Predict the 3D structure of the following.
Amino acid sequence: MSEKQEKAKELFKKGYNCSQAVLGVFCEELGMDFSTAMKISLSFGGGMGRMREVCGTVSGMFMAAGLAFSDDNGTNKAEQYKIVQELAKRFKEKNGSIICKELLDGIENSTSPIPSERTELYYKKRPCVELVGDAVEILEEFIKEQQKNASEQNA
């Protein structure tokens, strides 16, 4: 397990949501301070505001990818959308879905805006900590691949 994966899992266990935990470990190296990253990603936890839609880990991964791969004006949509689709594909291959309610099927699907209490049982029965680690691992691997490809093209 990478240092980033461990740190992201720690952030989640400290009470940050899934999206915050993922973006939080990439933000500073990608040019965003931690506090801003936590504010931006806050609304995406629990499948976007606990609506159980796209998993917050996936949203956090996409936000980090936007910081890593967007051009200076944020206008390279086709390239960015291709990256997002590839990252989603990898997450889905590993976990079966990118949808929070499907990932939590049979565990909990409450859409109440009030977050669940973070108890020992919460961490024991939910896959969220592992999903945080998976999203970080997928993005780390993707970034390394892109860096390798770029260096090979420049050689």
About this structure: DSSP finds eight helices and no strands in the chain. The two ends are 31 Å apart (CA to CA). Residues 128-154 form the longest helix (27 residues). The chain has a mean pLDDT of 94.
